[in-house]
Amino acid sequence: MDNKEILQQVQSGSLSVEAAVLKLKTAPFEDIGFAKVDHHRALRQGTPEVIYGAGKTPEQIIAIADTMKKAGQETILITRLSAEGGAAVGKVLPLDYHADAHLGIIGPIPNPTGLGTIVIATGGTSDQPVAEEAALTAQVLGNQVVRLYDVGVAGLHRLLAHLDDIMSASVIIALAGMEGALASVIGGLADCPVIAVPTSVGYGASFGGLSALLSMLNSCASGVSVVNIDNGFGAGFLASRINHMGTGDSVSCSREES
C-alpha cells in the first residue's frame, strides 16, 4: 500500500489516523542498489538520515545525497568525509565542507528550535576536530551552540571564567583526551545533563582514548553519560534530542546511514 492509498483510506474513514501514522512509519525505503535510503525515518524518528562518509566512494555519497534531495530533504549532513571526498562531492552538489570536523553539509543550517543552549567544552585545542563534529551536528539539528575550547583542568581558571555559560546550559558536551577529567569537573558544576566524549588525544598510556573513556565511565559526578571515543556526532545528536524534548519540533537529521 502506497502513501496515496493510505491517505485515501483515511479520507474514506476505513482507516484511522493512528493506524495510518503507523503504516507511514513502517513504509518502505528506496533501494538504489548499494544503499537503501530510508526516507521515512524523519516521520518515524523525527529526523531524516545522516550519511556516514567513511568507506563510501564519492559517487556513492553523491547518489545517496541526490536521492535524499529528490525526496525533499533540505539539509543533509555527511560525517567522516575526507578532504578528497569532500572536493569530489562539492563538484556535483553544493557542499559546505568543514575540514577540521571532516564533515560536509548540503543545504541550509536551520534556525535553532531547541529549548536552550548546548555548550561544547574541550580540554584542549587538540580536541577541537571532534568538538566541531559535535557542534556542527547539533547546529544542523536545530540547536543554539556555545563553544568553550581549551578550558581543561590543567588550567582550571579558564573553565571557571565561563561559569555563566556552564550554569545556564540545557546540555553540555565535555570532550577531553589524556585522563579525561574535564567531564567530572563540569559534572560537578552543572545542573543539566553532561555528555562526555573521550578523545584519542594523549601519550602512549592514554591508549588512543581508552584511558579517558574509562575515567569518564567511572566519573563520580552525577548526571554524566559517555559516548564512544571520538564520537562527536553521537554526542551532538544525543544533546539535540535532550534539548528538543517537549518542544514538539522535529530536528533536521538522524542516525547515520551505514
Short description:
The chain is an alpha/beta fold and 258 residues long.
Task: Record keyword descriptors for this entry.
single chain; 258 residues; alpha/beta; Rossmann fold; 5-stranded mixed beta sheet; 18% strand; globular
Structural features, described:
The chain is an alpha/beta fold. 37% of the residues lie in helices and 18% in strands. The protein has eleven helices and twelve strands. Strands 5-6-4-3-12 form a five-stranded mixed beta sheet, sandwiched between helices. Strands 8-7-9-10-11 form a five-stranded parallel beta sheet. A two-stranded antiparallel ribbon has the order 1-2. Strand 10 (194-198), helix 10 (210-217) and strand 11 form a beta-alpha-beta unit. Helix 1 packs antiparallel against helix 2 (17-25), helix 4 crosses helix 5 and helix 6 (128-140) runs parallel beside helix 11. The longest helix has 13 residues, at 58-70. The two termini are 27 Å apart.
